[in-house]
Amino acid sequence: MSPTPDSSKTPIPPTTPGAPHHDEERRLRELGYRPVLARRMGGFGNFAISFSVISILSGCMTLYGFGMGAGGPAVMLWGWAGVGLFVLCVGLALAEVTSAYPTSGALYYMADRLGGRRWGWYTGWLNLLGLLGAIAGIDYGAALFTGAFLNLQWGFEPTPEKTMLIFMVILLLHAVLNLFGVRLVSVLNSISVWWHLAGVALIVGTLAIVPDHHQSPSFVFTEFVNDTGWSNPIYVAAIGLLLAQYTFSGYDASAHLSEETSNASVAAAQGIVRSIWVSWIAGFVLLAGLTFAIQDYDATRASETGVPPAQILLDGLGTDGASALLLVVIVAQLFCGNAEVAAASRMVFAFSRDKALPGSALWRKVSDRTRTPVPAVWLSVAVACLLAVPSLYSPTAYGAVTAINVIGITPAYAIPILLRLRAGDRFQPGPWSLGRWSKPIGWTAVTWVACVTVLFCLPQSSPVTVDTMNYASVALAVVLVLATVWWFVARRSYGTPTAAAYSDREQAELAEGIV
């Protein structure tokens, strides 16, 4: 594979727009890669992995306590509605570019093709930071909820050390499940879709029927709570959007699994968009159901379980009912973390395939038996484990991990969209296209991402101390510095390939449609 001197001037045209079920293996070769992963995932499975990674039963439940103090019910509900609309714009714009470039590298490959090697390089590092931060955030959240479940059932005390141990066990489980191949991942994600939807219906339905007392609509949709230490309500409301923005991330998983998806040029694009709007609707219902069922706001926030949603279930349903529904949430979070490990490992594999990571020769290896990037799976969970270690020493570290996820992955979504807009007519869309809506939706997406990127670098609590500082900006700076330093080491070897990287015979066969 040889680097492309200036790929922004010669974007590779996709296959004929609208062609039904065109040869995705041939298309992958046109983009410069030999197929090595197993294409065993269907369209529903591709949608399911992004829906599972978004996981409303993970994001909404995990950060619900944060939302209770950063704006309260009004910001949680209306913030969810507004953020969901803007994220849908981001997803639509990203889906269009994914249709043109369906590879495991996803965002960084798109940026490289449309803007050049440096654009691809920095996009890749941001995307990788976000994906690895997401594994840490999701699985640590699952560990917190598992601790709350054990507390309800057997009086288990969820200390930071015990929570970290549970977290490591969950990481190990997800690593092992991902080693069995993409078919098992696809099956688990398909189950996950119905588990999430049925779980939301069960939780909301039970909370609507069983408790004797419910909050008023005015409380749920207008009550503003500020426990951040900041006095400006607009600033507090903006910070409170983290709950929704954190949950609405990870939908690039559909793109990362495109080399393992049939008809990926269409299915991966559809998977991104569908995962967002289905999560948008179901998440709003879940947040409303939880908030209506709050019995004592202050007591819920100070819950001994360490997880406010668990206290809502406990107050409204009793110990047995709360434990049963908490178990539903935990299983959903486990589905979510497993899907995120799959997406992150494909990013590690693809980035290593293009020689961007230290030790790339190891991380790009694929199992002959399962056609799964085994070393990439282990690296993904190991780094995620390291990211969560500060949670042993600081109660605010988990919030920092979630912010790292948002600050890493959100800008990475916007870069390919911005470069696609800059390319103008040089960008040739794939089978799934926005047509005349491409520019207005694209610019809306880029503007939104620019705003939230700045927003989530700002401190979330006042006064700002070592414990309350928002370390997302520090993490972003460290990654950019390391990426810049490593660029000078790896720039001669790094590069996305083109069809020109093949032999003359392969090029001739490609042109004749033989390959």
UniProtKB/TrEMBL annotation:
Pfam families: AA_permease_2. The keyword Transmembrane applies. GO terms for cellular component: membrane. Keywords: Membrane, Transmembrane, Transmembrane helix, Transport. Residues 1-25 are annotated as: Disordered. The chain crosses the membrane at residues 44-66, 78-98, 119-143, 163-181, 193-210, 230-251, 272-294, 324-351, 372-393, 399-419, 440-462, 468-489. One of its GO terms (biological process) is amino acid transport. It is a multi-pass membrane protein. Residues 1-10 have a biased composition (Polar residues). One of its GO terms (molecular function) is transmembrane transporter activity. The keyword Transport applies. It is found in: Membrane. This is Amino acid/metabolite permease.
